[in-house]
Amino acid sequence: MKDNKKSILVFGGADFQLSLIKECLDMSLYTVVIDPNPNAIAQQYANAFEVVDGKDFEGTCKVVEKYKIDAIVTAATDKPLVMMAQIAKKYNFKFFSEETAKLCTDKFLMKQKFAELELPFAKGNIIKTANDKINFPIVIKPTDNSGSRGVIFCKNKNELENIFKESIQYTRKPYLLAEEFIDGKEYSIESLHFNGKSKIIQITEKTVSSLPYFVELGHVQPAVLDKEVYKKLEALLGKVTKAFGFENCGSHNEVKIKDGKITFIEISPRLGGDFISSKLVKASTGINMEKALLQIALGEKPNLSNSKDSVSGIFFFCFEPGIISKINDVKQILNIPEVIDYSFNLKIGDKISEITSSIDRYGYFILKTDNRDNLFDLKENILNQIKVNTDKI
């Protein structure tokens, strides 16, 4: 029964939305979750769960009306953003526009907007076949996917045909994006946008896999940046989020920085995945971004008081490909006080394949420490403790 509780509709019921759903419940919101997967983990927690296809506008409207929804929200996924913007417009929910959603879920449209704004960005063009004219080296990627799916570095023409075939599997479009390769260290900026204001909450330093893939294998907060670079980044971010129409949302914006030069790669008006917004930000700053996002969605002033000054990081396991023949006791890492969470999804007999996208990763651990040196020392100690033996296939 809803009783007199405010009701909120969460789009998505997978692992990366789970902490947001739990936050809704902690705030005593009547929590309704929709997901196309009838076995989504959220159904174990939500007050109500409905199976709705991601493109089913009328079906989503029925859920809104059935439960007298007061606000809508999601986290760590781009897929429902256009639908959510359409629903928000119809029911006058606090959200951003459909134009904003479309610009940020199509990487080519996003680049056209970057160019219009004369911002520094990774330039790119649409290619429909492996025979299209391209300047190498290049990054091939779908225009409409996330999680590094189908994102592949291509050195020359000889590699392009096979890379095109691999990448095109990750899109519904008949084309791909050929994006210039930008050298530099990767960062993401975690922000909130409300009442016409934008506030950077934290900046994340990233570690990615070796080429040709770009899978994120680690995130550390806070990133170490020169003050001048931070000021420049803050100014650029304010300009881009205003022009793209970020309002009533969080954002996860990715850049590369080298020798003080900032280049935008992608931006998105939603909270970051990989537990960046849900766990790392809370551990490093004390700010609960998910609760703040819910407060924004409900028309309330978000609580952004900073009560911590710590260092946090998430690190994903990466082992040699093969068939697992032996695993030591992974749970032992829970005896380390600085470990605040972990997941390990392998057992003897499992096949370990090369990690080519985020969905291939099979476990992680999250640390919270008082300084960066301790964080990285602990990381190395833990990775040395976890022993997984594999037999070649």
Q: Describe it for me?
A:
The protein is 29% helix and 28% strand. It is built from 10 helices and 19 strands. α3 runs antiparallel to α4 and α4 crosses α5 (107-117). The longest helix has 18 residues, at 227-244. The protein is globular, with a radius of gyration of 21 Å.
List the helices and strands and how they pair.
Elements: E1 7-11, H1 15-26, E2 30-35, E3 48-51, H2 57-66, E4 71-73, H3 81-91, H4 98-105, H5 107-117, E5 124-127, E6 138-141, E7 152-154, H6 157-167, E8 176-180, E9 185-194, E10 197-208, E11 216-221, H7 227-244, E12 249-258, E13 261-266, H8 276-285, H9 289-297, E14 311-316, E15 322-327, E16 339-344, E17 351-352, E18 363-369, H10 372-385, E19 388-391
Parallel strand pairs: 1-2, 1-4, 2-3
Antiparallel strand pairs: 5-8, 6-7, 6-8, 9-10, 9-12, 10-11, 11-14, 12-13, 14-18, 15-17, 15-19, 16-18
Helix pairs in contact: 3-4, 4-5
Q: In whole angstroms, how far apart are the ends?
A: 54 Å
Integer-rounded radius of gyration: 21 Å
SSE ordering: EHEEHEHHHEEEHEEEEHEEHHEEEEEHE
Secondary structure: helix percent: 25-40%
Total beta strands: 19
The mean pLDDT is 95
Output the structural class: alpha+beta
Briefly, what is this?
Helices cover 29% and strands 28% of the residues. It is α+β, with helices and mostly antiparallel strands and 393 residues long.
